[in-house]
Amino acid sequence: MHELLERQATSLARQLVHVFVEEIPIYRRLPREELDGDITRITEHNLRMICEMFRHGRPPSSAELAPLRDSAARRAQERVPLEALLAAYHLGTRWVWDRLITTATPADFAAVVDMNRLVLLYSEVVTSAVCTAYLSEREGMLSQEQHAMHAAVSALLGGDHTALAAVRLAPGYLVMAIAVGAHPDEKQDEPGGSIAARRKLARIRAAVQRYASEQVLFVLDATGGLVLLPCSGEVPIVTEVVEAMSGAAGVPIWAATEQATPAEVSAAAGVAEEVLEVARIFGRPPGAYLLADVLLEYQLTRPSRATARLAGLLDPLLDNPDLLRTLKAYLETGLDRRRTAELLHVHPNTVDYRLRRAVSLTGLDPADPAQLQQIGAALAARRLTPR
């Protein structure tokens, strides 16, 4: 069989490459020069390596596998998916096997069994060599990409114009500060928790990348961080991006966003982080937020001598937490006493009594529009400066 295969190796290699093009989509997009050159050469080398296995009944040597490792590294550089590369090896092995046993008879049973053992050994050894070389090359490439990405992020966030000149940047960025909820599998005291966290982050990155044709820049850990989404044309709908991230990760996500040119990214990131902090402090639900969505809360959280005094307006209620809780629920329900009663699981008359007591202690009546604004500001200030 090895003599038969060796005589046909060159013609079979050409036929096999044609099969690859027909059966594996990515091979249809490879340059003709590459198909007729490198791909055909490595295919023929594989066929001759199988000949040697049949001749000597042993697995390929490291030297014989070297061209396969080099070829796998080149495919990694070309970003041919590993699954496509392995599909070609498995398809080629099956295709050759079908042709080798076409003329086999019952009398050849023992020989066919021996050949099958060697072909399985070939598949095992080759798969290991190809995967190891491919992944090693990809790791090196990813390390370079990570270094370039970190350099770009550092330059953008640091406003380093000298460094920015050496980095390829998009015309603009959607700057997103995000907070990420914990996945149920992320239990710190259980093995696999860190793996679950990394998997969650990988799903978030993949979900965001679908909204950009260029590399999205990330500074993320399991609890959140910054995402710089390049925008060369129409800006994606932020709510869609956040919903996609949350759905992919299987966790709630809060995001604050700002649009910026490269020179504005540093300032935009600062604003986005502040808006995110405000949204979280004031108990906003998961979702996407702009500065315009939290203007009052944002202003109240800026350093000011008035903030502590605003919070102090409600100090008379500290001895009776039910009064403060009722006043807060009353404002959150849009001054709806029945809805407030439902939330607090009390009778509406109890709500009326508590509101009267709050008015008498603080001198602030929610029925007065001017005083209602003061109460809202005081409640907001208390969230920031618990007393």
Automatic annotation (TrEMBL):
Residues 323-381 form the PucR C-terminal helix-turn-helix domain. It comes from Streptosporangium roseum (strain ATCC 12428 / DSM 43021 / JCM 3005 / KCTC 9067 / NCIMB 10171 / NRRL 2505 / NI 9100). InterPro entries: CdaR-like_regulators, PucR_C-HTH_dom, PucR_C-HTH_sf, RsbRD_N_dom. This is Transcriptional regulator, CdaR. It comes from the Bacteria. PANTHER family: CARBOHYDRATE DIACID REGULATOR, PUCR FAMILY TRANSCRIPTIONAL REGULATOR. The lineage of its organism: Bacteria, Bacillati, Actinomycetota, Actinomycetes, Streptosporangiales. Residues 11-148 form the RsbT co-antagonist protein RsbRD N-terminal domain.
